[in-house]
Write a structure and sequence with these properties.
It is a single chain. By secondary structure, the protein is of the alpha+beta class. Helix content is 30%, strand content 17%. It has a 4-stranded antiparallel beta sheet with strand order 1-4-3-2, covered by helices on one side. The longest helix has 17 residues. It is globular and about 40 Å long. The protein starts with a strand and ends in a 19-residue tail after the last helix.
Length: 99
């Protein structure tokens, strides 16, 4: 595990589409490196909407420079992930009572 997200997804397909969107824009990602609130260390955070991070490091790093390098490695790993063909989002036309 190299990163975590604050986003909650209803389905695995939605999570995969979110990841694919991030993978496609990997070259434009920028991170804010910040000191952890409790404890010692630094984390990188890619800002998202609604004051929530889009994604952040999965752990704290002892040194600022190490944290910077970890973010750079994350971007490289993300960009190397192959694009996947995902099924289109389907919407059920059934009513809640099953008809």
């Amino acid at each position: 595990m190299v990163a975590i997200t604050a986003a909650a997804f209803d389905t695995a397909g939605e999570a995969e589409r979110g990841f694919d969107g991030m993978r496609a824009g990997a070259a434009e990602l920028t991170a804010r490196i910040t000191h952890v609130r409790d404890g010692i260390g630094w984390i990188w955070v890619v800002p998202g909407s609604r004051s929530l991070p889009e994604v952040r490091s999965s752990r704290a790093y002892e040194r600022y420079a190490t944290c910077q390098n970890a973010f750079r490695r994350f971007v490289v790993l993300l960009a190397k992930q192959p694009a996947r063909e995902l099924p289109e989002r389907t919407v059920s036309l059934r009513r809640p009572d099953g008809r």
